[in-house]
Amino acid sequence: MSLGATDPGIQVTGVATWNNPSPGDSPQGISFPLGFLDLNVTGLAPGGSARVQITVNSGATVNAYWKYGPEPGNAAPHWYNFAFNGTTGAQFAGNVITLHFVDGQRGDDDLTANGVITDPGAPSFRPRPTHTPQAQ
Predict the structure, then answer these.
(1) How many CB atoms lie within 10 A of CB 131?
(2) Distance from the first to the final alpha carbon of the chain
């Protein structure tokens, strides 16, 4: 797995892997085949946006990006799917994950527009629901 910023002047720093932050209440049915990442995005203006790309080289299948932390309106750490909502979240194209961040908003763990985005999160696999035909 490799990662880097896609916007000029933006740096990804402090990259580390870590253990599941809340294994007792992990989302049911979700697997984290690449482990958990902790990274900082710097070099942006307070309140600015940034994109980070993660390239999955291991052959692992991932189709979601989950985070454990606060969100605007819910400061208590909790699990949430960081799916792209048009402004922030993760988008998937083949083996590339693009994370869209806005400093101080959803996805920035410190929820402060201070020019630094703090992202603990994990590429994950969420099985798709299967459709079972009804008996006639």
Answers:
(1) 6
(2) 48
E strands, 8-116, are 11-18, 36-42, 49-55, 64-71, 74-81, 89-93, 96-102
For 8-25, write each residue's pLDDT tens digit. Answer: 889 998 888 888 999 899
The 10s digit of each residue's pLDDT in 96-118 is 999 999 999 999 999 999 999 99
> C-alpha angle with apex 108: 105 to 103, nearest 5 degrees?
55
Q: Are 126 and 63 in contact (CB under 8 A)?
A: yes
**Residues making up the chain, counted from first to last:** 136
Q: What is the DSSP secondary structure assignment for residue 9, as one 8-state letter?
A: T
**Among 96, 97, 101, 85, CA closest to 43:** 101
Give, in degrees to the nearest 5, the angle at Cα 100 between 62 and 105: 120
Residues 6+ apart with CB under 8 A from 16: 37, 38, 39
